[in-house]
């Protein structure tokens, strides 16, 4: 399954966050944004459990402040 994750980051660490997101095996795309969210991450995971685990992992790093996740329907 695929999902989009809208991230709010600690702006002091944008470059580090961007590079670490690129290196995740689940990452399909990552883009910096201007506006309410700082980054858009598109991921591919096996199931909702893996998606939840990924969200927790990202939030526990301290450089990502919040995540809104949108699961892509129809897969």
Automatic annotation (TrEMBL):
Write down a Pfam family by its short name.
Answer: AsnC_trans_reg
**Which InterPro entries does the UniProt entry name for this protein?**
Dimeric_a/b-barrel, Tscrpt_reg_AsnC/Lrp_C
Q: Which Gene3D superfamilies match?
A: 3.30.70.920
Q: Transmembrane segments in this chain: where?
A: none
**Transcription regulator AsnC/Lrp ligand binding domain mapped to chain residues:** 12-72
Domain of life of the organism in this record? Archaea
* Protein name, entry field: Transcription regulator AsnC/Lrp ligand binding domain-containing protein
